[in-house]
Amino acid sequence: MARIKSSHRIAILLYIATTVLLLTVLYNEWISRERMRVENFMLLESKLEFIRILEKRNGDLIQKLQDIQNGGHQKKEIEDRLAPYITPVTTRTLNTNQTSKLEVIPYSLGFSRRGIFYQLSPGMVNNEPIAPANSNTKKEHDEVIVKAVKILNEDSIDHESYSINDLTYGYSRIHETVGTQYELYFRSKNTFKHIQLFRPFAPLQKVQSQTYNKQGEWINLIMPLSGRIDTFRLFIEMFIEECIKKDKHVFLTVVYFGIPGLNEVKGILREVELKFDFSHYMIVEKPEKFSRGVGLQSGAEAWTEGNVLMFFCDVDVFFTVNFLDRCRLNAALGAKVFFPIVFSLYNPSIVYHTRPNTPTWKEQMILRRDTGFWRTFGFGMTCMYRSDFMFMSDLDMQIQGWGGEDKKLYHKFVQSNYNIVRAPDNGIFHLWHEKFCDPKLSPAQYNMCLGSKALGEASHSQLGMLAIGELKIENKTLHLQTNTEDDQQELDYSSMD
C-alpha cells in the first residue's frame, strides 16, 4: 500500500513538472511573438514617419516652384530684405581709382536691340570677334534692356514713352570686386537718353539717368597727313557718304606735312566743295617732317570758334554715321573721353583670295574672325572736347613719324579724374595698307611698327595656310622681310599694350 502511494506521488510530480515545462515553453513562444510584433510595429511607425517627412519636403519644394513660376514673388521679398545691406553705387565708384592703363576696365561686351554683336575675352588676350553669345548672356542683357525701358518710362516727366526698339547701343563691363556696369543709349524724337545701371553681386540698382541733346552737335575731325593721296581719295568717298550726306555736322581739318601732294589734296577738297556745296573744312600747312603729335596739336589750335568736340582720325580709318553718334555720346566736357577700340582689317588679297576683284572699302567693313581683329594696342582714334585736350595734351613734339604720342595722351587721362570709355566699336575700321617700318625710327617705335605689321597681315589660320602652301593667291607675291644682323632684336609686344 505504501509502495502504491509512493508511485502515485511520483506520477503526480512528473505530471506537474511536465505541465510547468510545457507552460514555460508556450509562454516563451508567446513572449517572443509579442516582442516581434512590437518591433514590427515600431519599424512600421518609423517608416511612416519618414514618409511623412518626405511628403512635407516635397510639398515645400512644390510650393517654392509654384512661387517662382507665378512671377518671382520670393525674388521681390529677397530684394527688399537685401536692400538695406547694399552700398549705393555712384558714377564716382565706377569711374575712378585707376592709376595705370592696366587698371582701365574696357567695356567687354556690346549690344543693341538686335542682340549682342561683340564680346572680348577677359584681359583682352584674344582680339578676334567671337561667335554669338550664349543664351545665358543674352537672357541677362534682355533683362537689363527691359529694366532700363521700365525705369525710363517711370521717370519720364514729359510723358514720353520708350520701348526696346528705341535702344541704339549698349555697353557692359564687369568690375571684379563690385559687379556689372551697363551703359544704354535710347533715341527719342530729338534727343538721346542715357541710362546707367549696375548689377552688384545682388539685385540691380539704378545709378544714373540722363538726357543728352546732342542732335546737330558739330565734330571737328582732325587728320594729320603726308602723301598717301590715293588713300585720301578713298577716305573722302567715305566722308561724303557718312558725314556730308548723312550726318551733316562734321568739320574736316587736314594738317598736311610737306609740299609733295599738297596741291592734290587741295584739288580734291575743292571738287567736294563745288559738287556738294561743302565748305566746312580747312587745310593747315606744315612744311616740316611728318609728326602725328604736331599734327593733332596744330589742328586743335587752328580752331578759333570756341570749344568743340574733336575726333582724331587717320586717313586709313573709315567709320559709319552711327559711330559719330557714339563719339558725341561718349565724350562729356570736363568729365569723359572716348577711346574706341578699332577693328583692324586684314590684307584683302589674302582674305578675299578666291575673288577676281578686291572688294570695295564698304564691302570690307565686316566683323568676322577671318576679316580682322580688335586693335587693342591702339589709342590714336579718340573723341574729346578741345578744352580737355588743350588742358591735358602737352604732346611730345619731338616724336617723329609713326606712333607713341597716342599712348602718352592716353596715360595722362588715365592718371586724371576723367572717365575713360574704352570699348570696341562696330562702326570704325582700320583699312589694311602696305606698311613700311623705317629702320631710322627709335627702337621702341620700330618694334611697335613691326609688331603692328605682323598682326595686321592675316589671321593665324590664314598665315598657316600660306606657310604650308595650301592657300594660293593669284597674281600676288608675298614677301617675308627679315631683319639684318644689325637690326635683329626680339619684338617687344609689351610696348604695344
Q: Tally of extended strands?
A: 17
Portion of residues in beta strands equals: 15-25%
Return residue spans where pLDDT drops below 50 for at least 5 consecutive residues.
475-497
Strand order of the largest sheet: 2-1-3-4-5-6
What integer is the average pLDDT?
Answer: 79
What is the straight-line distance between the termini? 133 Å
Query: What percent of residues adopt helix (DSSP H or I)?
Result: 40-55%
What is the count of DSSP helices, taking H or I runs of 4+ residues? 14
Shape: elongated
How would you characterize the largest beta sheet? 6 strands, antiparallel
Question: Helix/strand/pairing class, anyone?
Answer: alpha/beta
Question: Your description of this structure?
Answer:
- It is built from 14 helices and 17 strands.
- The chain has 497 residues and is an alpha/beta fold.
- The chain has a six-stranded antiparallel β-sheet with strand order 2-1-3-4-5-6, covered by helices on one side. It has a five-stranded mixed β-sheet with strand order 9-8-7-10-15, with helices on both faces.
- α5 links the parallel β7 and β8 (250-257).
- α5 runs parallel beside α6 (262-276).
